[in-house]
Specification:
heterodimer; A: mainly beta; OB fold (Dihydrolipoamide Acetyltransferase, E2P); four-stranded mixed sheet; 0% helix; B: alpha+beta; Ribosomal Protein S5, domain 2; five-stranded mixed sheet; four-stranded antiparallel sheet; 4 helices; RNA binding (chain A); Exosome_cplx_N_dom (chain A); cytoplasm (chain A)
Chain lengths: 188, 244
């Protein structure tokens, strides 16, 4: 293992004009510095022409913090006005501790949003894919499922068996064939 | 003269056998606790400190949430057996709270808190044995623990104290020295010499200040090399383990 690539916070990595500052680095003046301990890596970013991205990373990854992006969460409880969920995964990286989020009635779906009934969209225990729309009041993140690909991705029926989506708002129990209402996510 | 405590002996050595510009023996080890996100143990002479860092995590109370950056929470506790006299100290001891707020203020501009809006970073510091230099050991331990937690920060923060005995500037005071002489604590970013904390609670002649300050800054640099070595050693170990 090459120990030369190990850098520590405050260590100078190069000129700011040569690289794009990736995670674990920061720019001060016209120089690029490391902000965490880890291995220095240079990767090419092809999207915006030929730019080199410098990142510092290590095994011990930080717990993710919700930002405006898609995430996976679990419904904890529902009220007629909103569903309270705990956010488990943010942009494919798991949170070490769960964050609390709220899906309001008007954010469940894009159409006929005044006719939404929370209990016909989510049930406690459902796993849903959602999107952060705002950083809400002091304690909760406001989430939305008002897109085709957002909604319930896994749910159990009253019987306790897994359910499969049969339309965008119905799911069927694999055991009893009973149909329950959910706001389903469109499979990719 | 005989009744007065002599802090510097006839050979020019201090009570614990150090020279004027000598640091106490320093021992440090990052990643000592498995539960915490980051942790560190430091000994500077007979002062010993354990630091644990948790976070960034969701803020415990509503009032602590800052919408544009992470809130840093510092708690210091002194073990009841840490001093000569066995005594239980409450966490709301004024003296301890003051040190905690000094540590918090030191780290606020250094940790890149703007990356973790609306979350909280907790730093818990425990003094296991006390022999002077509480502020400096708290800052050094916290630096090591934050680095271990992988929280982005602009640079190391290294702190060191210096004082003046018989018109002679001395480095890294122990408890006996700090209770009899003026003590100046400096925390700086060793790579660009920016000062983030400067603390002095007694009076020092202005002519001496420059020398004392320079001595403390030199001490910080020495501490930086020790900390940096410990961090590199630690990550080398990690790499070795992960490559097998």
């Amino acid at each position: 293992m090459n120990t030369k690539n190990i850098v520590t916070p405050g260590q100078r990595l190069g000129f700011a004009q040569d690289y794009v500052a990736g995670p674990g680095t920061y720019v001060r003046g016209n120089l690029l510095y490391a902000s965490v301990v880890g291995m220095k890596r240079v990767s090419k970013q092809t999207a915006e022409g030929e730019t080199l991205v410098l990142t510092v990373s290590r095994e011990k990854q930080q717990s993710a913090i919700p930002e405006v992006c898609s995430l996976v969460s679990k419904v904890i409880r529902i009220t007629p006005k909103e569903a309270v969920v705990s956010i488990m995964v943010v942009d494919n990286s798991p949170c070490k501790e769960d964050f609390q989020g709220i899906i309001r009635q008007q954010d469940v779906r894009a159409t006929e949003r005044d006719k939404v009934k929370i209990h016909e969209s989510f049930r406690p225990g459902d796993i849903i894919r959602a999107e952060v729309i705002s950083l809400g009041d002091a304690r909760s993140y406001y989430l939305s499922t008002a897109k085709n690909e957002l909604g319930v991705i896994y749910a159990q029926s009253i019987e306790g068996a897994a359910m499969i989506p049969i339309s965008w708002q119905e799911m069927q129990c694999t055991k009893t064939k009973a149909i329950e209402l959910r706001k389903c996510a469109k499979p990719f | 003269m005989s009744s007065r405590l002599e802090l510097i002996g006839p050979q020019g050595l201090r009570t614990d056998g150090r020279r004027f510009n000598e640091l106490r023996n320093m021992n440090c080890k990052p990643s000592v606790l498995s539960q915490a996100d980051g942790s560190a143990y430091i000994e500077q002479g007979n002062t010993k400190c354990l630091a644990a860092v948790y976070g960034p995590r969701e803020a415990r109370t509503k009032a602590q949430v800052l919408h544009n950056r992470a809130n840093i929470n510092v708690e210091i506790s002194l073990a009841p057996f840490s001093m000569e006299e066995r005594k239980k100290r409450s966490k709301s001891d004024k003296r301890i709270l003051e040190i905690a707020s000094a540590v918090k203020q030191t780290f606020e501009p250094i940790i890149m808190t703007e990356l973790y809006a609306r979350s909280q970073i907790d730093i818990y510091l425990q003094i296991l044995q006390f022999d002077g230099g509480t502020v400096q050991i708290c800052i050094n331990a916290a630096t090591l623990a934050i680095i271990d937690a992988g929280i982005p920060m602009k640079d190391y923060v290294c702190a060191c104290s210096a004082g003046c005995i018989d018109d002679e500037p001395v480095l890294d005071l122990n408890h006996l020295e700090e209770s009899n002489t003026p003590e100046l604590t400096v925390a700086l970013l060793p790579k660009n010499d920016k000062i983030t904390l400067l603390q002095m609670e007694s009076r020092l002649h202005i002519d001496k200040f420059q020398q004392v300050m320079e001595m403390a800054a030199k001490g910080c640099k020495e501490i930086h090399t020790v900390l940096d070595k410990a961090v590199r050693e630690n990550i080398k170990d990690l790499l070795k383990k992960s490559s097998i």
